[in-house]
Amino acid sequence: MSSMIEVKELQKSFGKLEVLKKVTFTVDPGETVAVIGPSGSGKSTMLRSLVHLEEVNGGSIIIQGQALVDNGSYAGHAQIKGITSKMGMVFQHFNLFPHLTVRGNLELAPRTLKRESSSEITARSKDLLSKVGLADKADVYPSMLSGGQKQRVAIARALMLSPDILLFDEPTSALDPELTGEVLRVIRQLAEEKMTMIIVTHEMNFARDVADRIIFMDKGEIAESGTPEQIFGSPRLARTRSFLKL
Amino acid sequence: MSLDYIIKIAGPMLEGARTTILLFLIVIVLSIPLGFVVTLMAKSTMKPLAWIAHSYIYVMRGTPLLLQLLFFCFGLPQIPVIGEYLVMDRFTAASLGFILNYGAYFAEIFRGGLLSIDKGQFEASKVLGLSKWQTLRKVILAQMFRVALPAVANESISLVKDTALLYAVAVPELLNYAKTAVNRDFTVTPFVVAGVIYLLMTLVLTLFFKTLEKRFKFE
Predict the structure, then answer these.
(1) Residue A10 near residue A49, CB atoms below 8 Å
(2) CA–CA separation, A201 vs A114, rounded Å?
(3) What letter would DSSP give residue B71?
(4) Where does the sequence pass through the membrane (chain B) (predicted)?
(5) Alpha helices in B163-188 (DSSP H)
(6) Are residues A99 and B146, on separate chains, in Cβ contact within 8 Å?
(7) Which residues of B touch A (CB under 8 A)?
């Protein structure tokens, strides 16, 4: 019950292709874990299966002590909804709702789910937009924003539901290099606030800087994991070294 | 083409235009929701529903509208046993034919709109805890209609002109009045007047949809 996320022997295949081969790891409360590795190593699939965007073929996912999947068999529909509702996700391509303003994007889910009063929702969306530095963009449509601004809106939108865990799927991969900084600053601030996070990323410097732990995935398995000092300083495996071009 | 003559025939012709507009409104108001329901059926995971929707679209798009109108007005009552219960006045029967025909086209238009929506929209909605129904209502519908709008405008304009097919089932409408006047008065003027009235109707529609497109630009 002490782990926030517990993943055991996760297996997933697309047809004959095995994308996850017995992936096992845990994430502690308040920990920031960066997942790195070559394209096609199963990083995104692993992340997406945590929020039930992919269904795995075997293994277990336990979130805050509750089993989303236990030995390959999934919990009931309502239980899955309950478990995944504690997790927010930020996508590579933002996936903002183009027909809603920035404020509308933040408030759609809380207003639809009706768990709190309208004034609380309005107040929090205002706070969160200031937090990501976009208070002046509340009434603008996403089409008028830069990529970096869109991703910051997406982070604020994920935070609207006060998640205990935040997952990032290559949050800066679709951005121009000069726009990644503003997004990484927001994520760094969340790490300092001890939000539990898993970040799939290609930004090695950022991973080294912000993460408490690095997981290096290769060919559907966790090849190596450890502190940033271990992984970047003295990796055990030759393939980790070659990936990091050390 | 004297002005006096035009004024004289304008009254009855506008009377005919009323039937045209009435048919147009009935068909638009009923076929758009029908099309939407058929789209959802076609996308349904329940196979029989999807099959019914696809067959319906295939039949309505694959046969002439004129054949369908003749079928509903004159064919239905000929069906053995149940035929006698299917006798409708010709305007009602024709409206039914138009609604079913246009419903199929609108279904295909909406399906196209649905296909254009990125799967990331569904994923983001799911992760935010929205149910399938909530996602459809709050996220997908608005985007689907936005994409479909130009094609819906196009179909609506086609419908204005297709109402002239009422001529073939002898329901008095705009074209019917024009033809009567041409035969009676030995002049081409009524056809020109009818053309102008059709143009006016399509102009109003064009402007209406332009405004809608501007309103739903999301900028």
Answers:
(1) yes
(2) 34
(3) I
(4) 20-42, 63-82, 188-209
(5) 174-185
(6) yes
(7) 118, 120-121, 123-124, 126-130, 134, 138-139, 142-143, 146, 216, 218-219
CA atoms within 13 A on the CB side of A45: 25
Q: What ranges do the domains of chain B cover? A: 3-215
Model's pTM, two decimal places? 0.87
Report domain B3-215's class: mainly alpha
Coarse DSSP helix, strand, coil percentages of chain A, rounded to the nearest 5 percent: 40, 25, 35
Question: B121, B123, B125, B128: which to substitute to probe chain A, counting the most A Cβ within 10 Å?
Answer: B128
Spatial distance between the Cα atoms of B22 and A223, rounded to a whole number of angstroms: 71
pLDDT tens over chain B, length 219 residues: 688 998 888 888 898 899 999 999 999 999 999 999 999 999 988 999 999 999 999 999 999 999 999 999 999 988 988 888 888 899 999 999 999 999 999 999 999 999 999 999 999 999 999 999 999 999 999 999 999 999 999 999 999 999 999 999 989 889 999 999 999 999 999 999 999 999 999 999 999 999 999 988 888
CB A89 within 8 A of CB A157: no
Task: List the single residue in A with minimal CA-CA distance to B125.
Answer: A109
Q: At what angle do helices B189-215 and B3-43 cross, to 10 degrees?
A: 40
